[in-house]
Amino acid sequence: MARRWFSIFLVLGFLVGDLDGSAGDADQIYKTCVDQCEKTASIGDIFIQQCIFLANDAVVNSTWYMQEPLYLQWKQLNCRSDCRYHCMMQREKEREALGLSPVKYHGKWPFKRIYVFQEPASAALSAFNLMMHFNGWLSFFVLVNYKLPLRPQSRRTYYEYTGLWHIYGFLSMNAWLWSAIFHTRDFELTEKLDYSSAVALLGYSLILSLLRTFDVKDEASRVMFAAPILAFVTTHILYLNFYELDYGWNMKVCIVMGVVQMFVWAIWAGVTRHPNRVKLWIVVFGGALAMLLEIYDFSPYCGYFDAHALWHAATIPLTILWWSFIKSDAEDRTSILIKKSK
């Protein structure tokens, strides 16, 4: 659930992530610094080693072993990215000395880099969310398979949604993995994998919310529920990856799917008077309140913690509570079905 809310507003945080239209990169002093850096491979006392591979055409057009090292290319620690980073840091020091506030460069705040981590706080918090989902899924797996009774004949779990939640767990871990990677190194491949994983999780979460709240147990009925949404989500992901990474359209799709889920879960909990509805309501409305962190955007504190990073931090306790609800739901359903079978 927490990751689902994050997916809705992920696009808001990076809506202009790849556009060169921010105030910082429009600054002529910054642009001149980057141009000079790429030509001279230096910014003051800082030497940019990667730029030596662009210094003359003989190196650029030579055989593969004379090119920029592959590990540097993979990490995107290339001439342009390093020049942009160091020029940005230098320009921000100058602006600070003049009493000016930080501005965005190429759609992002001026984060201080730690080794290859472009946004270390968000990357670390994404990794924590990944760990929380892994821990939640693992505890759910142990609960339904080893702690709760199994059906005598088939040795399968009584809980009818076990398999669906396993898939949800894997999709959640995959989404947070690519979120951590995207915040570590932001380039086209990691961006598309992060967006695709988030949309896939959001679409599947919508399917799961409908199957659970409408108590759909029959496999044929589940296919009927899932097929239209699955087809749309698949088409949307293909559109983003192979036609156009349309941030505005993606934002609308994510918001619609997310809002539908929010109302479905909240209304269902109240109508059915689910015994664990308080947990569900806290996750739903807690996630809604945490959205304010995405709306109230501010420059990174000490160069590391911005509103988006704090949003990542807010999803950690919500994830723990969400998996607690899932496990409680499994226990309640198992108890009810065992009583009916006697």
TrEMBL record:
The way it spans or sits in the membrane comes to: Multi-pass membrane protein
Subcellular localization is given as: Endomembrane system; Golgi apparatus membrane
Write the record's keywords in alphabetical order, separated by commas: Golgi apparatus, GPI-anchor biosynthesis, Membrane, Signal, Transmembrane, Transmembrane helix
> Quick one: signal sequence residues?
1-21
One Pfam family, please name it. Per1
Example GO biological process? GPI anchor biosynthetic process
Q: Which parts pass through the membrane?
A: 123-146, 158-181, 193-211, 223-243, 249-271, 278-296, 308-326
Give a Gene Ontology cellular component term annotated to this protein: Golgi membrane
Molecular function GO labels? hydrolase activity, acting on ester bonds
This chain's function reads:
Involved in the lipid remodeling steps of GPI-anchor maturation.
Which family does the similarity line name?
A: Belongs to the PGAP3 family.
**Protein name in UniProt:** Post-GPI attachment to proteins factor 3
Q: Which organism is it from?
A: Apostasia shenzhenica
